[in-house]
Amino acid sequence: MRTFQICFLSGLLISCGGGSSSSEDNSPPVVDPQPTPLVSFSVSDAPVDAVTSVNVTFSSITLKSVNDDDEDDESGLNIPILDDNGNPTTMTINLMDYQDGEQKLIIDKAEVNAGKYTNLILNTSGCPQNQNGSTEFCWVVDNDGIKTLKTPSNKLKLGAVSVSTASEQAFTIEFNLRSSMTVTAGGASYNLKPHGVRIVDGTTVGSLSGTVDVNLLTAGEGCDTVYEEGVDHGKIIYLYEGEVTSEAVMGDEYDLDIAQNEIPENVIQPYTSDSVSLDIDSGTYNYHLSQLPAGDYTVAFSCGAVGDDPEEYDSIAIANPSNQLHNVTIEANIGSVINFTEE
Prior knowledge:
By secondary structure, the protein is mostly beta strands. It has one helix spanning 177-180; strands at residues 9-10, 12-13, 38-46, 51-64, 77-80, 91-94, 104-111, 115-117, 119-124, 139-142, 145-150, 155-157, 161-163, 168-176, 181-184, 189-192, 197-201, 205-212, 236-241, 249-250, 267-268, 272-275, 277-279, 284-293, 295-302, 325-330, 335-337. 33% of the residues are buried.
């Protein structure tokens, strides 16, 4: 806080500072130091088909700056998860409990110096490193039972993040499980990877939701699969940044770093995606995309996205039916609505 001195005119000009008018104080003004920002981190999830729970144990977040040794994962600012007494602990979370904008706070108001950090590492604890490992700390439940869930070296390296000088900030780590979780070992286990996990500023995001006409579920080409809860029915909403031009091809989920299939140059990756779900109470088919940074997007529906491999480009037809796409502008702290209807 700056300290100001107030000068008054009372017949004669009196100098500030209480000293003689002939003296001059050239010392710099006293300025209180900028307080260290307080930063909070939460996790949330976009769901995946054919899985009922995705359980991960987290221990801390590491922020690496340009001065840290990139080869040393132990360098950087480590921010532990704390218990009610302020002691480092771990937290086991079923990610599927935090969908449709719901979040789980894992770190509350930690002191973090303002600046750009080259990597945010979300540290997991006790996740097995092969399909024969323990399911005590990290596991998935699907239609066949409990499966191991691996994270690479118990570290999810999520990329750069910037902390401003604002006194309090909140970030959300959004897991798009349709992109970040893959089946391995012939279905015996799962991998959780950084691909498809986003870090968003919680103050600048909005959401998009809506309904899908039941007739559209089987209206497109190759859409004979009947909707069934708990299976890969291929009824998917895809969201793309910006307005998609007629020359571009809207791609399905894939990981550019490891994909082996040929990907045409005009294919654009989705920003995120969501499976259409049935609301039993209302009888409507719905979708919900949350934690979306404000901006312009294109949203499209495909009824034939069965087997969308999150690692490979599968040439899935999007939109399908071809007229089921819309342009939408997302505004911060506002829930936008786009319904897909049969025309």
